[in-house]
């Protein structure tokens, strides 16, 4: 089973790139972030024509998350992160797909920091940690995938000294992420590539992609039931180099064991 996460940075504006990538790599499950589309504007028909069932939570201009499943319909289990009924930002969606609970998330950026946006980010991580603990306690296979807007270590950023005051790298944010992992989650990409510099995001300016001046902020966290099944992981860097690309590249993991019938389409 291949599970991928991809901050698409505008699902309609980059739909051609998304469909081409889906057609070439055929992941079984895809978590998308930054749809930047209302609920009604999500390109459901094109996604279904590509062979994927989908659930999504849209939001005008900003945010938005979706889960795609090849050949099957994701069964929605949550449409928002619990813990704050007043939070209307579309940043979390969850589904059951082929025996796995999939949490797709777009964690707040938090800049400028310090300030209200960083405070919101830290509260959001705390809510995520509370919900993640409940998922672990349930003893079911779970993957939390998405744009976490966190570089966990200096290994995950091209120039750590330039990011010390940024909300993606501040000590309190990295500590909050570490506490999440300490519950029993496995950072799948880092587990399989412990010594490599791997990036998932490159800014649009200063020729960042060509210089490989990147950040690793897109992660797939596995519950203990899945961690030992992770056999491969990578970043589809070439997608970032295409015309009109997102500033993120898709990140994927391969799990051993049963996987869905990849040829069965959703009509």
From TrEMBL:
Keywords: Hydrolase, Magnesium, Manganese, Metal-binding. One of its GO terms (biological process) is DNA repair. GO terms for molecular function: DNA binding; double-stranded DNA 3'-5' DNA exonuclease activity; endonuclease activity; metal ion binding. SUPFAM superfamilies: DNase I-like. InterPro entries: AP_endonuc_1, AP_endonuclease_F1_BS, Endo/exonu/phosph_ase_sf, Endo/exonuclease/phosphatase, ExoIII-like. Residues 4-248 form the Endonuclease/exonuclease/phosphatase domain. The record marks 248 as: Interaction with DNA substrate. The record marks 218 as: Important for catalytic activity. Its cofactor is Mg(2+); Mn(2+). Gene3D superfamilies: Endonuclease/exonuclease/phosphatase (3.60.10.10). Mg(2+) binds at residues 7, 34, 147, 149, 247-248. The record marks 149 as: Transition state stabilizer. Probably binds two magnesium or manganese ions per subunit. The active site is at residues 106, 147, 248. Belongs to the DNA repair enzymes AP/ExoA family. This is Exodeoxyribonuclease-3.
